[in-house]
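for the writeup, i need someone to sanity check this before i put it in the appendix. the sequnce is what the collaborator sent (i think, or maybe the updated version? ugh). structure was predicted straight from it, no edits. if anything looks off just tell me and ill rerun, i have time this weekend
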Amino acid sequence: MRRAAPLLVGLLAVLHVAANGLWLRADEGIQFTDAAYHYTQVVELRAGLFGDAGERAVWAARDDHQRYGELWYYVAVGVGAATGLEPARLLLGLSILLWPLLLFAAFRLGAELAPPQRRTLGGLLSAALAGALPGLFNYTRVFVLDIPLAVAVAWSIVGLLRVLRAEQEGRSSRWAWALAGAAALAGLAVKVNAVAFLAGPFLVAARPVWRRRWASDRRAVLRSLGLVGLGAAGIGAWLAWSHRLDAVLQTAREATWPGKALDYAAAGSLGAWPGDWARAAWGQSWEVAYFTTLQSFSPPLLLATAAAGLWFFARRRGCQDPLAHAQRALVFGWLIVPLLGVTIVLRGLYDERYLLPLLPSAAAVIACAVAEIPRRLPRWALAGALLAGAALNFLWISFDLLPTTRPLLCATVPGWAATDRVDRSLWLCAGYPDYQFLDRPTEPTWGDWPLSEMDQSLFPTRNA
């Protein structure tokens, strides 16, 4: 099975590209809200690169596009040279690039976390489950930056997990560091918030290396820290020169609670800030749970993720085996900063896309839990049940297969906060019957749009 694993992952990627092709062919292809914005940047970038002198001058004079990195826009322009910029054809071309990168990264994550004797099983199951997570496959069908960000973060984590393994086995970790660093830079060139997903894992991976070198060659550690400082200064200078720093600082002030403290202080009401922050964070935590359940996982896969996550962080091997212990710390660092960020730091609108780079870790942790079941029959039975359920979930959500079965096995779960955007309770079903993402249904849609409705669709309103 080990030799056949790359072929199986490649075949799975081909199936996902084909499914996207069917979906995009049946859909009207309208890009809503944020997807409309990013798609517009690609169209304007192509005009700025290959248009006439007037179009190039207009693009050069713009600065509102500097809020995001431009790497994925350039990739899209390159793909668009072969496919054209019609949304369905462009997105299919990008799918051909994204799906292999995403699934092979998920395979490597599962293989790294799984026990040594079942690494292939862990990798294959991780790749299959990652492809069945709604938060990942839905967003490969619209033009957003969060999927390429998730791919870059996943490959950087693969590199860091290889660093941990190399350190435990006494091998050189140079190439693993190169993979982790190159993927991290690519993520930063897509979206600067890659820092939130990678800061913790990089610290976990670097700590034993620096500790060992500090004992033997302190000057080498100081030189390494100097290089890191120079790199950080270079990135900061690039942000300032490209005007992205202004956008980042503006976002930090307007969209985070620590930044909002400056406005409270200017208004002379700083005393009210802690209470407002606490109440908002409490409500935000319910919104995160609400949208993550329905739009990132779906209820059955979230239950599997929660059970596997509890096992992963409590298992005996994570305490006794040095490599598993280091891996556990790295995965914790991957999860904790973004989760705390969107819950207690972010102010205002939450979107499930903000946590998409965490989803490959969910697939890998589930795969690791299954691979560690000691008995063959229960292990394969659970793996088969997960794959069958995930495949059915994919068909339910993507193509509304057997719609009468979707509102079965339902229950109402009470929430712990009331907000303007979501209900106080959550209606859960095995196949959620009223699923949406980015203000649109998950199944393909087609219709005649009045101009007034088309204009309204471009505003970022969210539906529960």
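Strands lie at 411-414, 425-428, 436-437, 440-441. The first strand starts at residue 411 and ends at 414.
thx in advance!!
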